Amino acid sequence: MNMIWLCTTWLLSLTSVISGQNIDMSRIRVFPGQNQSIAGVFHVSYMNDLNQPQYAYNASEARKLCLSLGVMIASKSEVLTALSRGLETCRFGWIDEHFAVIPRIKALSNCGQNQKGLVPWRASVTTKFDVFCFNETDAAIQLKDTTTDSSAKHTQSPSTQTSPTSSTSPTSSLTPELSDNQAKPAQIASRVQGSSGGKAILIITTCALLLIAIIIFAYLTLHRSDIKLQHQEEYVETEEWTCVKVIQDTQTATQEDESTEEDDNSS
Fold first, then answer.
1. What is the pTM of this model?
2. What tens digit of pLDDT does each residue of 11-68 get?
3. What are phi and psi of 113, to 5 degrees?
4. Cys staple from 192: which of 70, 89, 97, 256, with CB 3.0 to 4.6 Å?
5. What's the CA gap between 105 and 17, in Å, rounded?
């Protein structure tokens, strides 16, 4: 029964994610741009009425936002990979490990406490930040493009090999902008929806089959118990009837013996 409850709860939560929350896409802004990412990672902000970025998501809301966009929240290692390929922002965003980060290539006094690298900010999970999402499909495509380009360079000029660039795809070769107002409104890429939707349907189907199997097993178990109980009741009734019959026969035999003795005495 616990398995049924867990599976049902998971199905309901997944259905709510797939159906999507009421997100006003005109209020969402992504960096580096529309249908773009760096190593699969992109930064999502909320735009207020003045069309200015505003920290608006706690840790739980940030995760749900990425799921609603058909992707997952980025992990620390994924953001680090994107940082090594050129991702740089000036705003903190939640990641999968439940703390916020700013990826910085250059140290600036007004960005990330004048630090370089992945600058962390460990705060309460209720604190409002932006969010870093991860598009697995984009990451795979960019990795394939990078590998293909590197192989071509090695083949063409083996005597003048240099270390490969971080990426040659259009999305990963972009120079990050520090200005928040230069990012474009977010739109969900159709290939992301297709990939995520297919995975979700497969997971739901598997869980539904598991739930049906559990229900059938429970029904057969209960039905078998009812049959066993019925057989036990019939057996008890048979035993009771047999005992009564034996007692009646015994009483009859005793009465016949007493009658015979009385006849003999009379004679």
1. 0.53
2. 544 444 444 445 677 899 999 987 889 999 999 999 999 999 999 999 999 999 999 9
3. 60, 35
4. 70
5. 34
SS3 240: helix
Q: How far is it, in rounded angstroms, from Cα 120 to Cα 91?
A: 11
Residues near 39 by beta carbon (within 8 Å), at least 6 away in sequence: 78, 81, 82, 84, 85, 87, 139, 142, 143, 167, 172
CA nearest to 134, candidates 68, 79, 83: 79
Q: Write the DSSP string, 174-195.
A: PPPP--GGGPEEP---HHHHHH
The one-letter amino acid code at 104 reads R
Q: What are phi and psi of 24, to 5 degrees?
A: -80, 105
Q: Give the Cα separation of 139 and 18 in Å (integer).
A: 22
Tokens 């992945």 locate to 118
Strand partners, 118: 103
Element (H, E) at 254: helix 190-266
d(CA 61, CA 64): 5
Q: How buried is residue 186: exposed, middle or buried, by Cβ count under 10 Å (0-12/13-18/19+)?
A: buried
CB atoms within 10 A of CB 27: 16
Q: How far is the C-alpha of 239 from the C-alpha of 243, rounded, in Å?
A: 6
CA–CA dist 152, 147 (Å, integer): 9
> Beta partners for 102?
119
Lookup: tokens for 77: 């290692």
Query: Which two structure tokens, joined as six digits, stand for 160?
Result: 């003048």
pLDDT digits (tens, 9 = 90+) for 195-226: 555 667 788 888 889 889 899 998 888 888 77
Cα distance between residue 88 and residue 177, in whole Å: 8
Counting every residue written for the chain, the total comes to 267
